[in-house]
Amino acid sequence: SELTKRLPHDEPIFVEGKVYNSTANSVLERHCKRAGIPVISVHGLRHTHASLLLFAGVSIASVAKRLGHASMNTTQKTYLHIIQELENQDVDLVMRSISSLI
Predict the structure, then answer these.
(1) Is residue 1 situated within a structural domain?
(2) pLDDT of res. 32
(3) Which residue in 63, 60, 25, 31 sits closest to 45, CA to CA?
(4) pLDDT digits (tens, 9 = 90+) for 36-76
(5) How many domains does the chain have?
(6) Domain contains 77
(7) Alpha carbon of residue 46 to chain centroid
(8) 26-58 in b/e burial notation, b at 16+ Cβ within 10 A?
(9) Quick check: is 6 in a domain?
(10) Nearest 10 degrees: Cα torsion 40, 46, 54, 37
(11) Smallest Cα–Cα separation from 28: which of 10, 8, 48, 13?
(12) Cβ(34)–Cβ(26) under 8 Å?
């Protein structure tokens, strides 16, 4: 934050001019191939980031805010499969807890 405090808040930090999604994806693809890892898009990284946050227990509200979603509904719809998996894990945890009391 110390390095960026004097920079305009509404402008990119590292680039000048327009940056296209396809350009960023091409650079990322080249680096993935060079590193010998599966190719992923910038959007794929965003989705992975959100998924990891949800699995780590970060609230849907916080993930929605971080992604810039206007509504938590957008986040819930997009990550419904993860939310359902987390609910299944919760059910398993509840059942184990109850079983340990018997």
Answers:
(1) no
(2) 96
(3) 25
(4) 999 999 999 999 999 999 999 999 999 999 999 999 999 99
(5) 1
(6) yes
(7) 4
(8) eebeeeeeeeeeeeeeeeeeebeebbebbeeee
(9) no
(10) 20
(11) 48
(12) no
CB atoms inside a 10 Å sphere around CB 64: 20
Instruction: Tell whether 93 is covered by a domain.
Output: yes
Side chain identity, residue 32? C
Residue indicated by tokens 């206007």: 70
- Domain span including residue 51: 21-101
CA 80, CA 78: separation in Å to the nearest integer?
6
CB-hemisphere CA count at 13 Å for 3?
2
CA quadruple 92, 62, 47, 8: dihedral, nearest 10:
-170
